[in-house]
Amino acid sequence: MRVLVAMSGGVDSSVAAARMVDAGHDVTGVHLALSSAPGTLRTGSRGCCSKEDAGDARRVADVLGIPFYVWDFADRFKEDVIDDFVSSYARGETPNPCVRCNERIKFSALAARALALDFDALATGHYARLSGGRLRRAVDHDKDQSYVLAVLTAEQLRHAVFPIGDTPKGQIRREAAERGLAVAEKADSHDICFIPSGDTRAFLGARIGVRRGPVVDGAGTVLAEHDGIHGFTVGQRKGLGIAGPGPDGRPRYVTGIDAQTGTVRVGDVADLDVTTLVGDAPVVTSGVAPTGPVECQVQVRAHGGVVDAVAHLYDDRVVVDLRAPLRGVAPGQTLVLYRPDPDGDEVLGSATIRSAR
């Protein structure tokens, strides 16, 4: 099988490539150049896709004896991930750019090019598993990335390979060291890859500008003025620009954002609890939508907990009734539905949250 491996320059994708070689496949490595100024996209463990990362990936490919290329996806990444991220915050939403990158770059643009070049599959270093065409959680639940892959369609998953999903992270690092790969102890990237400073508010402010509006309490009393709704997300407690806690002495949290009026609402922590989620653009990863209500578990953050729920799937939306409240759910987040299974929790599908109540 001809396999294209997306090589970020980190330990996970490096071991994924090595395992594909060991399995006897015809392997080619590719590094995605996602920035027109790659030297600006890494600060220690923050950021990715820098010249340093491309060099690390190339050295691993040399050790493995496989062809290696750098493909420029910077324009596509800016349009489909960065610009989407900025516009989503400008609408008062809280997006997950890793979800969009997997959906629109790695398993859409990159996979399409791979198939056009007669590759049979695209392999990545994601911590997830495929079994019988079903997407499942990784063995290492602490590193599980099935959440950010739950937007993939059955056709996309048909051409995907996740070689390390059956292995704990610590063992992956040991394997890399045993193979003589210099990236064995390389720090994992974290936070948002295209904001290496970690200052999301400043990044958004430089692109959206000042759009002042009021911060109000549940009674509509104006407590402060802000410079833009992009600086807030539902559930936020710090940096609200208001003087002290509420009249009851308790902290106040962002409970809602109205993009049309530029209003940020704050309230008590109890105001953050929701029991129903409504999402649009649903994706069923198996390709076959279940009929009737579905008993499942739902997760709304990449590393968040799960709650039992009943999902009702329609053509253009999904309604999820929670059996226990979730706190601080924001429009723009991705909801992912799981079915508990002895062979590993199966991903049923996903949707983008539009409302929560």
TrEMBL record:
One of its GO terms (biological process) is tRNA wobble position uridine thiolation. Keywords: ATP-binding, Cytoplasm, Disulfide bond, Nucleotide-binding, RNA-binding, Transferase, tRNA processing, tRNA-binding. Gene3D superfamilies: Adenine nucleotide alpha hydrolases-like domains, HUPs, Translation factors. It is found in: Cytoplasm. The active site is at 101 (nucleophile), 193 (cysteine persulfide intermediate). It catalyses: S-sulfanyl-L-cysteinyl-[protein] + uridine(34) in tRNA + AH2 + ATP = 2-thiouridine(34) in tRNA + L-cysteinyl-[protein] + A + AMP + diphosphate + H(+). Residues 143-145 are annotated as: Interaction with tRNA. The record marks 126, 333 as: Interaction with tRNA. HAMAP family: tRNA_thiouridyl_MnmA. Belongs to the MnmA/TRMU family. This is tRNA-specific 2-thiouridylase MnmA. The gene is mnmA.
